[in-house]
Amino acid sequence: MKITVGAVVQGKSSLAYKTGNWRDQRPVLDVDRCKACGQCEEVCPDSAVHVINETYVIDYDFCKGCGLCAYECPAQAIEMVKEEK
Amino acid sequence: MRNVKVLEGSEAVAFAVKACRPHVISAYPISPQTHIVERLAQMRADGELDAEYVRVESEFSAASVISGSSAAGSRSYTASSSQGLLLMTEVLYASVGLRLPFVITGVNRAISAPISIQVDHQDTISLRDSGVIQIYVESSQEAYDAHIAAFKIAEDPGILLPVMVCMDGWILTHSYERVSFMEEAEVDRFLPAFRPLHFLDEKNPKTWGSYAEDNVLMEFKYSVQKAMLHAKTRIKEIFSELSKITGRDHGDLIETYRTKGAEVVLVAMGSMAGTIKDVVDRLRSEGTSVGLVKIRCYRPFPHEDLWEAIKGARVVAVMEADFSMGSEGAVGMDLKAKVCGRPDAPLVLDFITGLGGREVNQEIIEGVVAEAQKAMINKSTFVESCWMGLDPTIVP
Fold this sequence. Notes:
The complex is a heterodimer.
Chain A: E1 9-10, E2 25-29, H1 39-43, E3 49-52, E4 55-58, H2 68-72, E5 78-82
Antiparallel strand pairs in A: 2-5, 3-4
Chain B: E1 4-8, H1 9-19, E2 24-27, H2 35-45, E3 52-55, H3 59-71, E4 76-81, H4 82-98, E5 103-108, H5 122-125, E6 133-136, H6 140-155, E7 163-168, E8 176-180, H7 184-190, E9 206-207, H8 217-246, E10 254-257, E11 264-268, H9 272-285, E12 290-295, E13 297-299, H10 303-310, E14 315-320, H11 330-338, E15 347-352, H12 362-378, E16 386-387
Parallel strand pairs in B: 2-3, 2-4, 4-5, 5-7, 6-7, 11-12, 11-14, 14-15, 15-16
Antiparallel strand pairs in B: 1-8, 6-13, 10-12
């Protein structure tokens, strides 16, 4: 990657800049307990929860592991698991 | 002679800035300020200057306004001194990183405490590591010419850095001198309209000041150093292009004065160089082998040119109006680090002079030359900087 003069970056380019590696805890969704209420999608500050084929899916390319979804989930269907390499 | 006026140094700078057709000027109008921005505000009020003039509540804001306007693609300018420049420091570092090519006049004055309004170089020297290009001038005429060159240097596509023209408070800003002005058309030809590489544009949004992780920050910092190194060549070319138009030659990165065959070479910046030249003339006529190197461009530091100028000397005596507390004078350190760290180099002596407006007169300069001659005979330098004219008996 070539850096730019003055660190000026073209707008609308955040999709190309993956931030998932900032995460130290990973939210893991138990689809059997999930009631599809959509709270997790609403509270995610990184817009990293999407509905795909009628189920909630977490996008690990952008999830920073803040844990808000797990905290807010009324069905306690999301568990935060330590990231390990 | 065409277009010659006798006027205050501050006013000469205001006319130079006006000739460069800035779009935005922002300044904090109260102490420590000079007549430069006062005169520019007057020109704006009288309809002689077509620029936005933004009054702000601090120098931090003044620097912030011109960094914003510069990012928007406007040619931008401010001026300040001492505490005001220190208050700008954070914004100046950021503007370097964002590569915003505005121009500042750094009117040199001492830093508090104790409060002083008098000249020394501590304020601008404190900004030496920021990445702002610094040009020091000796006279009002040189200040006028340097400002016109400054915008062209700053806006050069290979440089894109803020440029600070450093001029001595009072001695230059408040004295009346003859200054020869350029014709408007000459300035326009020399300094075409600012064409920024990027500019803030709502139709094409870009991010300024984005986050840089440890994998690229070093590269960003090195890119500024690379621009600084490139600037050494471009500044010479730009000064030479300007002097072809004006017929005035103030030197390029440095100016050498009777250094040929000199055993003792003095090194200085700013207005004290004028007095030193007179002393050099007199001492030369009395048979003393002495010359002067005036540093015009302090950042980037012109170590190659300095080496060429001093390599034949036996002693180099730096006279500077600044001090790095706990170490020594900044110019002396630069010279030792970048020029004289070799076995065939002359001895370097560092003299602290003129802090807080103390007069750097002929007697002081002769004293420096005498010390340099002593060191030449003894073949020894001193470990600490020598504070010329200091009265140690009153120091608690």
